[in-house]
Design brief:
By secondary structure, the chain is an alpha/beta fold. The chain folds into three domains: 150 residues, NAD(P)-binding Rossmann-like Domain (Rossmann fold, 3-Layer(aba) Sandwich); 148 residues, Dihydrodipicolinate Reductase, domain 2 (2-Layer Sandwich), CATH 3.30.360; 84 residues, ACT domain (Alpha-Beta Plaits, 2-Layer Sandwich), CATH 3.30.70. 36% of the residues lie in helices and 27% in strands. It is built from 14 helices and 17 strands. A six-stranded parallel β-sheet has the order 3-2-1-4-5-6, with helices on both faces. Helix 13 runs antiparallel to helix 14. The longest helix has 19 residues. The protein starts with a strand and ends in a 6-residue tail after the last strand. It binds NADP nicotinamide-adenine-dinucleotide phosphate and L-homoserine. NADP nicotinamide-adenine-dinucleotide phosphate (NAP) binds next to helix 1.
Length: 428
């Protein structure tokens, strides 16, 4: 198996996610790009620190020169954060002909122009999917799948900390300071929350979104920025009463020549898809002149979601570098299950004659067919027939169908009025 060697700058939250994904998903990665991706050196600040990843000690270094001078390293992955020395290391890596992946929104928002210019002049790739909305693949979608559009509008909840705070304030009617304190105690918010609550983090991300969406240079300093520290529970109450949610939105609009770029708390109609994006989740709503409205939703931070975006960029570089357009080898043989083997929950509405004992008879037929019930509701009374509604626990489709046949044989059962499969959004 041919290998591509990478140098990891940083082994904190994101670096450890990258390490874990490369290890856990090794087979999928080989299948997707045809190469094994191997971390051959890891730069950290403190070589003595205890780490919760199983990378061998000999990979670690605190000297960037070890990575820069290693000709075997093709791709440098900057997940250390901060402006310097991250900027210097990225530029030097490019000078040495290495491709670079970065998650560093502050650096790209402030120094992107210089880095993009260097990558162009050196003929190396620079990808930074993780810098905006963590695990959500929004930048590659704008760059590739939406390349045939003029993006007219991009509007996002791109900061998880502030979305968590606003969601909690709205649900519990509590004030900003107490939610922030609780979020800090739980480790959701930084001890110095300024970058998040004052909108700096969102402004960095909007700058990057704007550059890609509107195809122009955008200075971070030209983005209007206002945080959420002034939002009071009463504002949220009024918003609700008027049919709105309050969200910290990063908004970019192409007004046909002029561009609007602003981050601020925003009233957004409750029926707008962004209004229901809660807790730490991120979402980006985008309008293209060909595709229309689109929305991307997911986790904007954390080791694995952010690592997912970084590893995706690494694979993208491996494929582009080697002109790999399609990998066809060694896909697993997987068969589609017959429908009767499907397992899910069911909503079943049965019309019955309202006679004593009918519920017991139906329940026993479910039991006989190994279908466990989670709830039962009876609708209607004093009519000759009434609805009995059952929600099952996870059950096998084949058992459900057999139970239906058995239930239809009960004298008081008039009909199975409806059977609807229930998806809770996650496999249980
Ligand atoms: P982190 O947990 O603080 O980790 C930073 C890592 O970089 C640590 O391993 C640290 O070494 C190393 N490092 C820092 N400065 C260094 C220096 N001067 N020389 C050598 N090594 C240095 O940071 P993170 O949360 O992973 O974030 C990394 C980047 O990803 C940032 O740009 C951040 O904005 C971006 N990002 C993070 C998330 C997230 O969920 N955390 C999401 C999206 C984007 P030690 O371990 O020895 O201290
Ligand atoms: N502080 C950021 C947030 C983390 O709260 O969304 C990822 O950029």
């Amino acid at each position: 198996m041919e290998k591509v060697k990478i140098g990891l700058l940083g082994m904190g939250t994101v670096g450890s996610g990258v390490w874990k994904i490369l290890k856990t998903n090794r087979d999928e990665i080989i299948r997707n790009c045809g190469y094994e991706i191997e971390v051959s050196k890891i730069l950290v600040k403190d070589l003595g620190k205890q780490r919760d990843v199983d990378a061998p000690d000999e990979l670690y270094t605190d000297d960037f020169e070890d990575i820069l001078s290693d000709d075997g390293i093709d791709i440098v992955v900057e997940v250390m954060g901060g402006i310097e020395p991250a900027r210097e290391y990225i530029l030097k890596s490019m000078d040495a002909g290495k491709h670079v992946v970065s998650a560093n929104k502050a650096l790209i928002a402030d120094h992107g122009k210089e880095i993009f210019k260097k990558s162009k002049s050196k003929g190396v790739m620079f990808l930074y999917e993780a810098s905006v909305a963590g695990g959500i693949p929004v930048l590659s979608s704008i760059r590739e799948s939406l390349a045939g559009n003029r993006v007219e509008e991009v509007m996002g909840i791109v900061n998880g900390t502030t979305n968590y705070i606003l969601t909690k304030m709205a649900k519990e009617g509590v004030d900003f300071e107490s939610v922030l304190k609780e979020a800090q105690d739980k480790g959701y918010a930084e001890l110095d929350p300024t970058a998040d609550v004052e909108g700096y983090d969102a402004a960095h991300k909007l700058t990057i979104l704007g550059i890609l969406s509107f195809g122009t240079d955008i200075e971070l300093s030209s983005v209007y920025r206002e945080g959420i520290t002034n939002i009071q529970p009463i504002d949220i109450e009024y918003a609700k009463e008027l049919g709105y949610a309050i969200k910290l939105l990063a908004i970019g609009k192409d007004r046909g020549g002029d561009i609007e770029m602003r981050v601020h708390p925003t009233f957004i109609p409750l029926e707008h898809p962004l209004a229901s994006v809660g807790d730490v989740f991120n979402a980006v709503f985008l309008k293209g002149n060909a595709v229309g409205d689109l929305m991307f939703y997911g986790r904007g931070a954390g080791d694995m979601p952010t690592g997912s975006a970084v590893v995706g960029d690494i694979i993208d570089i491996v494929k582009n570098r080697n002109n790999i357009y399609y990998i066809s080898n060694s896909r697993d043989e997987k068969l589609v299950k017959p429908m009767e083997e499907t397992v899910c929950k069911y909503y079943i509405r049965i019309m019955v004659k309202d006679k004593p004992g009918v519920l017991g008879k139906i329940a026993s037929k479910f039991g006989k067919n190994n279908v466990s019930l989670s709830s039962v509701i009876q609708k209607g009374r004093k009519t000759p027939t009434v609805s009995l509604v059952f929600i099952t626990h996870n059950s096998r489709e084949g058992n459900i169908q057999e139970a239906m046949e058995d239930i239809l044989s009960i004298e008081e059962v008039v009909e199975i009025a409806n059977l609807i499969r229930v998806e809770n959004g996650v496999d249980e």
